[in-house]
Design a protein that fits this description.
By secondary structure, the chain is of the alpha/beta class. It has helices at 13-21, 33-39, 53-61, 67-74, 88-91, 93-100, 124-136, 145-154, 159-165, 177-180, 204-212, 246-254, 275-283, 314-326, 328-344, 348-367; strands spanning 4-7, 43-46, 82-85, 108-112, 139-142, 166-168, 193-197, 218-221, 237-240, 256-261, 288-291, 306-309.
């Protein structure tokens, strides 16, 4: 009998799966379900995201996010063998408390892509709590080696615990995008502008200032919450704050010269910021420029797919933008490296392969 894995998240997995079915989103936004269904060794069940909104309002009063979802999980214990949460900290708090005191016994598998110590607080009690919290999970899949190493060091987790519960995986884009988009990359002459799309910890203001003195076009796609605070936009910069799907952005990505990922965040929050946008870089075989983030698993410059700049470095952005705009050979080489990175190191099949191993071993340990 194959393990039944219940997939929950802090955003709607049923909607993400529906968008994939319609061809409007990639399989990587369903966190391994599509690939594991195809492999056939694990049954992954998408749990309805929200049913009783008033429960979530109550949960907020007690600092428990997605209370509705967690209560319904408790009412459906016979329908799954393993609980899987890609955004673990935001929607498993109640379940983890119950697991810590022995009232919830289902194995829990999570992915980790943000710091678990979260905060400037160096208080020993806080760190003890964070250590207890993360070790209550049966398996934690880190999406970043630097983040894994930092977690072990800062929380003083012994080797025996980390080797038994922690592993490393590379979350990557839908493998079908390789032939659908990556290999059909438009030539340099048909690419008209730079593009930057995203909403988490984005520093669009620095990017806009870099473009102010350049004769290059920039298109920014954001949300109303992440819209840049810059009042006087230069004429070569366009900002679209409508909520768009990945499918809506495809023609813009295809005609872009490079994908830009400007980031800003306090050091203590450093995690995998920019990770989702890097998926778009390799999906379309594009070069990239991004704010330096040592926590990302993929070394942009080492892989030869782009450049990094320091946070808030306007002159650094200008320098790298000029190189890509004025050097077709460099642009082509980086595009080829993006294609190679996608195929060999950074795709949904690689992630699913590791995920499958974790689920099967967790299920075996549960039965044993």
């Amino acid at each position: 009998m194959k393990p039944r894995v219940l997939l929950i998240n802090n955003y709607s997995m049923d909607r993400a799966y529906s968008l994939w079915e319609k061809g409007q989103s990639g399989s990587h936004h369903v966190w391994g379900k599509v690939e594991l269904d195809q492999r056939g060794k694990v049954e992954m069940i998408v749990f309805p995201h929200e049913k009783y909104k008033f429960l979530n309002k109550i949960g907020k009063l007690f600092g428990i996010g997605h209370l509705d979802q967690q209560i319904r999980v408790l009412l459906n214990l016979n329908s799954f063998d393993i609980l899987y949460s890609p955004y673990s900290k935001s929607n498993t708090k109640l379940l983890l408390i119950l697991k810590a005191i022995g009232l919830f016994r289902k194995p829990m598998v999570v992915t980790i892509h943000q710091p678990f110590w979260m905060g400037k607080n160096e208080n020993k009690i806080f760190r003890w709590y964070a250590k207890k919290y993360i070790l209550t999970y049966d398996a934690s899949i880190f999406l970043s080696k630097p983040l894994l190493d930092k977690t072990i060091k800062r929380l003083k987790i012994p080797d025996k615990s980390s080797k038994g519960k922690f592993s490393l995986a590379q979350w990557g884009p839908d493998i079908t995008y390789y032939e659908r988009y990556c290999l059909k990359r438009k030539p340099f002459e048909e690419c008209e502008f730079f593009i930057s799309a995203g909403h988490t910890d984005r520093d669009f203001e620095t990017l806009i200032e870099a473009f102010r003195s350049l004769d290059y076009k920039l298109k920014i796609f954001c949300t109303p919450k992440s819209i840049p605070k810059t009042v006087d936009l230069p004429p070569n910069v366009e900002v679209n704050s409508q909520v768009l799907t990945f499918h809506d952005l495809i023609p813009f990505y295809q005609r872009s010269l490079a994908i830009l990922i400007p980031l800003k965040y306090p050091h203590f929050k450093e995690g995998c910021q920019g990770m989702t946008s890097v998926q778009d870089v390799v999906s379309f075989g594009k070069p990239m420029i991004m704010t330096r983030n040592p926590c990302l698993n993929l070394n942009v410059e080492k892989e030869g797919i782009g450049y990094t700049v320091a946070m808030y470095d306007i002159e650094g952005w200008k320098e790298k933008l000029k190189i890509l705009k004025e050097n077709r050979d460099i642009w082509n080489e980086m595009g080829k490296n993006s294609q190679l990175t996608f195929k060999q190191k950074f795709n949904s099949e690689i992630f699913a392969s590791h995920l499958e191993k974790i689920f099967l071993s967790t299920y075996k340990n549960k039965k044993g």
